Amino acid sequence: MSAQNVGSRDGHQAFRLHMVTWNVGTAEPPADVRSLLQLDLQPAVDLFVIGLQEVNATPVQYISDLIYEDSWSHLLMDTLAPMGYIKVTSVRMQGLLLILFAKQVHLPFIRDIQSTYTRTGLFGYWGNKGGVSVRFSFYGHMLCFLNCHLAAHMNYALQRMDEFEYILDRQDFDMYNTPQVLDHKLVFWFGDLNFRIADHGMHFLRSSVNNSRFNLLWNRDQLTMMKKKEPILQEFEEGPLCFKPTYKFDRFSETYDTSGKKRKPAWTDRILWRIKPKAIETVDEYNSTSSSADDDEYPIKVTQDMYTCDVSYGVSDHKPVIATFDLEMRKKVETPLVTLTVEGHWSADEDATFTYTILEKFESSTWDWIGLYKIGFRSASHYSTFAWVKDDEVAANGEVVTVQMNKNELPLLAGDYVLGYFSTNMQTLIAFSPTFLILESRLAVMEGLLPEKINGHEK
Predict the structure, then answer these.
(1) What's the mean pLDDT in 289-297?
(2) Among the listed residues 287, 292, 187, the one whose alpha carbon sits nearest the alpha carbon of residue 237
(3) Which of 15, 141, 257, 399 is deepest in the core (most CB within 10 A)?
């Protein structure tokens, strides 16, 4: 259930997380992803995390995507923005793409966002294999999402493990308390991990799948087998594989590979998670004691509600895997860093005024800005207009700073808007004003202007 609608239990709240991993096989996205996001089937989601592999990454396409964003991101934003979800951040490495969306109400409490990537394919020179990750603080809890595409083929299970450990070793974050992936309180590891089903013949495999007797295949799943002997994997949890192996299908069908290669079905596409084990109490060289007190006081409970694939999508030879979770936690942070207050009535007939106040010290900058966003906006860059914050010096804590927006920059037609404070150092929106109405301007009324006639503001 959505955190906004759940009563607290000893201060704890449940936040709903919806995750998708999909090897899209360089295909263009389907016309509709509502089923993939299950927008019509479940309680309101707080966070969407979508990890894709093999997004079209030809040199021309890749350069175009860097400038204009890729078609998958566009479709996801077009689908989620009208429902109040904002794209918080994304990271791309060639064919690997990881995108985070959140309800607007959570953005002020998603902080310290950092992303990184690690190449493993072709000796690390080309990003066709590897891992991309996003880490952030969510109400004070450290979360990390790692989307991987590991080495293919049946005989490379050990190489896949080597690549996973190499990615974990190479991914560094500029955070004193969580410099590496496994330092985070909660880690999700997912992607096309490419583990196969060993030993069984094609007839037995397909017969077991066709009869939904998936349990007959679990003990020969390479990842399950690896978990028995690899200590690092034993720290990760995964729900039961009670869905069809997601690879390899004929495109636009629910039929497994009929090509000459006749690849064996396999659960290549997976979603696992790890709650950081409680630390053993230690004494460092300065005689300060560290323990698991924080984990005891602010634990996270993870409950997986769904783990399945959606066989209806056929643009790729993989089927997308979907997992939903409830993250139960007590908020460590509940106060926004900044407040924004709209003064008076706004319309394009006169300059508008608002104030902002720094409530809590953070690494602010004179390059920070405050954007005007129409409700239903897609991302931080999707503003109608903006104003720089105080430009001569960084505002002091508690100081009320007044800012004006030029009337010529305001929308001519009426609509619901918010102001959002964008932190350049944090690279995210850290505060919003309450929603307010911008009135229709006298010019729009006199000339009977329609939305499509207003250049840029209403399109």
Answers:
(1) 54
(2) 187
(3) 15
